[in-house]
Amino acid sequence: MPANFPMPAADQFRDVLGDLMGRGVRVVPTRPTDLGTDRPGALADYETDRERIGVVCIADLRLTNALGAALTMVAPNAVEDAVASQSIDQPTIDNFREVVNVLTSVFNTNDTPHLKFKAVHRLPAALPDPTKQLVDAPLGRRDFDVSIDDYGTGTLSVFVG
After folding, report:
1. At what angle do helices 61-71 and 90-102 cross, to 10 degrees?
2. In what order do the strands lie in the sheet with 53-60?
3. Class of domain 10-20+40-160
4. Where in 24-130 does DSSP place strands (E)?
5. Cβ of 158: how many Cβ atoms within 10 Å?
6. Cα–Cα distance, 127 to 141 (Å, whole number)
7. Residue 69 CB partners (closer than 8 Å, separation 6+)
8. Domains of the chain: which residue ranges?
């Protein structure tokens, strides 16, 4: 069954993230990785105007911290410190929220229901049922290694319904 929402290509993510970060960003498809919702990271969900979850993105611990730090030019060594302590602080989650909100643009087309950013969930966490159902049984999935100059590389998994 085809997905109801577009599966963005690596270059779409690269362009949006590069413009937002103001630095070099590389996005390369990779094999599916079990990021799991029981491991440290962050999950963003996107919903339709009818409040149906249509897309979920999961960023691993390293990528969550790298995106959050790069957005406001926090010292790159803060990413390594956060990864070593297996943590994501509140300012980083707030910055990550801004990043995934901007990423909404890659999921909207003229031919699909309109999506808007709904929420960020710091992982591990109990997820709302509709979000969990999409992660457990997506109609499409793509995984990417995302590298941000000076901030490192992490994994982003995209699930579409």
Report:
1. 80
2. 25-30, 140-148, 152-160, 53-60, 41-48, 115-123
3. alpha beta
4. 25-30, 41-48, 53-60, 115-123
5. 22
6. 19
7. 75, 76, 78, 79, 92, 95, 151
8. 10-20+40-160
Amino acid at 45: D
C-alpha count within 13 angstroms, C-beta hemisphere, residue 11: 0
Q: What are the structure tokens assigned to 5, written together? A: 């929402």
Overall average pLDDT of the 38-49 stretch = 95
Query: What is the residue type of 88?
Result: I
Length of the chain: 161
Q: Which helix (H) or strand (E) holds 134?
A: helix 129-136
- Whether 157 and 141 have beta carbons less than 8 Å apart is answered as yes
Residue type for position 146? V
User: What token pair was written down for 6?
Assistant: 């577009």
Q: How far is CA 152 from CA 47, 76, 95, 107, in A?
A: 30, 8, 17, 25
pLDDT tens-digit profile of 49-79? 999 999 999 999 999 999 999 999 999 999 9
- The pTM assigned to this predicted structure is 0.94
